[in-house]
C-alpha cells in the first residue's frame, strides 16, 4: 500500500512538471492572409489572440497567463473595456474552435502620453479578467529584453485575421493568416517613405519596419496589435514587433511599421510582476531543467510501478 501511495505522489509531481513546460515562452509544440500570406494551421501560433468588439478589430499575443500585448490604438478609450472580448486558442473567426476560451478585460495599460501610432508608443498591455489555461494550443510568446536586436534581413512572421487586400476582408471561415517578411533597416525604411511622399512619416526609435521594397506582402487593416515574431538561434519564438500602422497594404516603398517591443521592456516589467524577459540563455537553461527533471521522474515512476 505504501508503495502505491509513493507512486501516486511521484505521478502527480511528474504531471505537474509535464504541464509546466507549456509555460516556457516561445514554444509552439504543434509546429512541424494577411496580404500575400496563407492559412495557418491549428496550434502553430498558440500565443495569437483575437480581440473583438462587435466583431474582430485587432490581434494580440499572450505574454502571461493573465496578460495580452496589443496596440494602444486598438483601445481608443482604455478606461471603457466592457464591450471587448478576447479569444485565445482559436484558428478561425467564423468556424468552431475546439480549444478556444473567451475572456473579458480587467484593465488596459498604455504608455503615458500616447496619442497616435505615427508618434510611437503604440503598445497596450491588457489584463484578462480570468487567466488562460496553458495547453499545446495556448502558449505565451517570449518578450525580448531591452538589449535584444533584430538585424536587418532577419526573416520574421506576421500573423492575423486582417484584410487580405486593401478594403477586402478575410472570407469564408476566416482562418488565421501568416506571411514571412524581413526586418528592414531603420534608415532604409525612412528613405522608402520619402520616395514620392504623400504623407510625412517619421520612423522613431520605438518603431521597426518589415516587408519588401517592392511590396506584395504586408500586414493590413485588422492585423493591428498582432505580432511580428522571429525565430531565435536556439529555436525560440520571440516577438520583435506589434502591428502598428502603414500607408496602404503591401504598397511598394511603404513597408509595415511595428512598435518595437524591446523598447517597452521597462513598462512591461513594471506592469506585469514576475515576468521574465527573453535574452536567450535563461530560456535554454529552463528547457533543459524541465526535460531533465521529467526524465528522472519518469524513470523513478517506472521503477516504483514494477
Account of the 3D structure:
This protein is α+β, with helices and mostly antiparallel strands and about 300 residues long. It has four helices and 14 strands. The protein has helices spanning about 1-20, 185-195, 265-270, 280-305, and strands at about 40, 50, 55-65, 65-70, 85-90, 100-105, 105-110, 125-130, 155-160, 175-185, 205-210, 225-230, 235-245, 255-260. Strands 6-5-2-3-4-8-7 form a seven-stranded antiparallel β-sheet, with no helix packed on it. The longest helix has 24 residues, at about 280-305. It is globular and about 55 Å long.
Main sheet attributes: strand count, strand direction, barrel closure:
7 strands, antiparallel
- Structure classification: alpha+beta
**Distance, first to last CA:** 14 Å
Mean pLDDT: 85
Strands ordered across the widest β-sheet: 6-5-2-3-4-8-7
Q: Indicate the low-confidence ranges by residue numbers.
A: 5-22, 282-290
Q: Give, in order, the helices and strands.
A: HEEEEEEEEEEHEEEEHH
Amino acid at each position: 500500500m505504501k508503495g502505491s501511495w509513493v507512486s501516486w505522489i511521484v505521478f502527480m509531481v511528474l504531471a505537474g512538471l509535464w504541464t509546466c513546460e507549456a509555460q516556457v515562452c516561445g514554444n509552439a509544440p504543434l509546429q512541424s492572409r494577411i496580404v500575400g500570406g496563407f492559412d495557418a494551421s491549428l496550434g502553430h501560433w498558440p500565443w495569437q489572440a483575437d480581440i473583438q468588439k462587435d466583431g474582430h478589430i485587432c490581434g494580440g499575443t499572450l505574454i502571461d497567463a493573465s496578460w495580452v500585448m496589443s496596440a494602444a490604438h486598438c483601445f481608443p478609450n482604455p478606461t471603457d473595456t466592457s464591450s471587448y472580448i478576447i479569444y485565445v486558442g482559436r484558428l478561425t473567426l467564423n468556424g468552431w474552435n475546439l480549444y478556444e476560451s473567451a475572456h473579458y478585460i480587467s484593465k488596459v495599460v498604455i504608455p503615458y502620453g500616447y496619442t497616435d501610432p505615427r508618434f510611437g508608443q503604440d503598445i497596450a498591455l491588457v489584463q484578462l479578467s480570468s487567466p488562460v489555461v496553458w495547453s499545446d494550443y495556448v502558449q505565451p510568446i517570449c518578450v525580448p529584453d531591452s538589449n535584444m536586436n533584430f538585424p536587418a534581413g532577419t526573416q520574421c512572421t506576421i500573423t492575423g485575421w486582417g484584410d487580405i487586400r486593401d478594403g477586402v476582408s478575410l472570407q469564408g471561415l476566416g482562418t488565421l493568416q501568416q506571411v514571412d517578411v524581413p526586418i528592414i533597416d531603420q534608415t532604409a525604411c525612412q528613405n522608402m517613405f520619402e520616395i514620392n511622399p504623400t504623407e510625412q512619416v517619421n520612423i522613431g526609435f520605438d518603431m521597426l519596419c518589415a516587408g519588401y521594397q517592392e511590396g506584395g506582402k504586408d500586414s493590413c487593416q485588422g492585423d493591428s496589435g498582432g505580432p511580428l515574431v522571429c525565430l531565435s538561434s536556439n529555436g525560440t519564438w520571440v516577438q520583435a514587433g506589434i502591428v502598428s500602422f502603414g500607408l496602404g497594404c503591401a504598397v511598394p516603398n511603404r513597408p509595415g511599421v511595428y512598435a518595437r517591443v524591446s523598447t517597452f521592456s521597462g513598462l512591461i516589467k513594471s506592469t506585469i510582476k514576475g515576468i521574465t524577459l527573453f535574452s536567450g540563455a535563461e530560456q535554454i537553461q529552463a528547457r533543459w531543467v524541465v526535460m531533465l527533471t521529467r526524465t528522472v521522474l519518469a524513470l523513478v515512476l517506472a521503477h516504483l510501478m514494477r
